[in-house]
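Supplementary Note 2. Why include the ligand at all?

Several targets in our set were suspected to adopt different conformations when bound, so apo predictions alone were not considered sufficient. For every target with a known small-molecule partner we therefore ran a joint prediction. The input for Dihydroxyacetone is given below.
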Amino acid sequence: MSVLDNRPALKAAVDQVAEVAGYLWQKGWAERNGGNITINITDQVDDALRAMPAIDEPRAIGKTLPHIKGCWFYCKGTGKRMRDLSHDPMANGSIIRILPDCAHYEIVADAVVAPTSELPSHLAVHDYLLAKGSPYRASLHTHPIELVALTHNKKWMEKDVATRMLWSMIPETKAFCPRGLGMVPYMLPSSVELADATIKALDEDYDVVMWEKHGVFAVDTDIMSAFDQVDVLNKSALIYIAARNMGFEPDGMTDAQMKELSSVFGLPK
Ligand code: 2HA
Ligand code: ZN
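The joint prediction is reproduced in token form.
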């Protein structure tokens, strides 16, 4: 028996996380327990699930987050591997509900799997998204090799320098990651400072934020769309590297070509 049984909408959302977790592993972006995924599943929770008792004691989030009061999330488990989650999402992640005090949560799932160590920062992002009235329900943290490599050079950490280069490698990147890549300087993983800086960068109007020498954090309506934004950015980084490996600096699309793309596709920047 699983809480996903006879709940096709909830099962589809969790299965999509499992599918993305498999892609992260295949791409080499998810060594060991690297990366995190959380999705807001409140809309997929029915009354019967709402009435189910928790399977463990309430735990503190470590923050008070008023906008996620009563919300439900599927979260990757702490220390769990994406490659394991891809074939057994309920043994490597769990479903939690936020208690009315907005500072504690409890697990309502098949097994007691403690959520990701990055839970406070992921939940703070979901809280921010709901406060803003955003339709985004998914957040993804992963370690895309080529994008992380870019951040080891100060030039690419300057605001929108990497964005312009990545957008200019292939038209799809600007079309499908239209807000570009925000940059957050190195901060300790799991720290409150990193969570706050991430939310600030998302608020400056990025969907994908780069953590210097660490990884990306992406938000979108669902987890597949968040993955797609990171995937197109990393594809551009690969094209840049391929050109450099052929012995030249790639020209990139011209400003006029980018402008035309933005006006035809109705892109925001
Ligand atoms: O949870 O990638 O940054 C594993 C991580 C933390
Ligand atoms: Zn990480």
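Residues 223-245 form the longest helix (23 residues). Residues 33-36, 116-118, 141, 189 surround Dihydroxyacetone (ligand 1) (CB under 6 Å). Comparable summaries for the other entries are listed in the accompanying table.
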